[in-house]
Structure formats: structure tokens, C-alpha cells
Amino acid sequence: MPKTKKNKGNFSVKILKKYCKGCGLCIEVCREEKIEIDPSPNERGICTVRVSREAVCSGCLRCTAICPDGGIEIYRNGHDKKTNDRE
Fold it and tell me: Which residues of the chain fall short of a pLDDT of 70?
């Protein structure tokens, strides 16, 4: 069965605020400019990242690969599993 290309916009980004330390590495690697710093600090006083636009994630996983604390998950829309999970 041939592999299909990932369709732009078929993925959702989930920021795990309890792990994010606001380093901004994910912002630098996101080609879709989907991630930005949240100007409101969390309960620990840290300005974490947030998703800026919902419908543009291509599912490239660059943000998950560069995050040193595992604070980002990417989900294929309509599926419960993360895109980097093996089936």
C-alpha cells in the first residue's frame, strides 16, 4: 500500500503547560508560525508557549523533536493517537 502525504491542516498541537519552560525553541523551528509565547505567566510565573493558529499545522513534528522537556504533542485530527506513536 503506497504511503500518502500528510495533508496540511490535518493536525492539532497540544502544549503541555506543566512541562513547558518558555524556551522558545519550538517557535524557531515552526515553519507554519503556529506557536508563540503566551504573554500571561502561568502559576509558576513562566510565560509558556501557546498555539497561535489552529488550522495550519502540517504535522512535521519539528517542534516535538526540539522540545527538551517533551512539552508538545501533535495529534492527527480525528485520531486519538499522537502522530509519533507507532501503531
Answer: 1-9, 53-55, 79-87
The full set of domain ranges for the chain reads: 11-76
The 8-class DSSP code of residue 82 comes to B
What is the enclosing helix (H) or strand (E) of 9?
none
pLDDT tens per residue, range 63-85: 999 999 999 999 998 765 555 54
Domain 11-76's class?
alpha beta
* Cα–Cα distance list, 76 to 6, 18, 44 (Å): 9, 22, 30
Provide the Cα torsion 39, 45, 46, 49; round to 10°. Answer: -40
